[in-house]
Amino acid sequence: MAKRIYLIGGSKGGVGKSLVSMAVLDHLQAGGENVLLIDSDTSNPDVWKAYHEVVRSELVNLDEADGWIQLVNLCDEHRDATVVLNTAARNNQGVSAYGVTLHNTLAELDRQLVTLWVINRQRDSLELLKEYLETITATTVHVIRNGYFGEEKKFELYNVSKLRESIEGRGGRSLLFPDLADRVSDNLYSQRMPIAQAAKALPIGNRAELLRWRGEVSKVLMEITT
Length: 226
Fold this sequence. Notes:
Layout: E1 3-9, H1 17-30, E2 35-39, H2 46-51, E3 56-59, H3 65-77, E4 82-86, H4 92-98, H5 100-103, H6 106-109, E5 111-119, H7 123-135, E6 140-146, H8 156-159, H9 162-169, E7 174-177, H10 182-191, H11 195-201, H12 204-225
Parallel strand pairs: 1-4, 1-5, 2-3, 2-4, 5-6, 6-7
Helix pairs in contact: 1-12, 11-12
């Protein structure tokens, strides 16, 4: 099977892309996958800061054509690795202008592009996904409803949308990403530690919450990574 590129998108700040990216990295590593992290949030690379010492990691600016060229070359150089691409909040313009560079090389790379699009309950999350799909068509898209913003039924705009029908009609899934207690997510960001390390180093109560969440996340990600 072709190695995958997991692109974690959302194109706006505050929807939870970084935590989803960290969860995907943790899940793949726990399953024995060889992973390459590419973080395009070059101004505030939280995921890179947490993981660059434990996985091969690169910072790539996808606002520029050269960054997309670099991304494709890295995917080619590391053919043995599954790629996790954490995108920045500003990157929809870069996708529109230069995303075709990746789109047109997927077959030669022998890579499958899987997009995890993280949404909150606001309309612009969906509008930005529509824009993304106009450029990147050769991808399976799974919509990740971030449970931080409420239970599944509260994502009504997406749940009843034609966009959901389209995503699921193309084989994508609509999933609810489990919420993690604020004090534990704050630990991950402030101490810049990988999830596996935090599961051993945090105070006992924090570890218990993290392990609960980690188990729930694994159930969700198993549906789209196997």
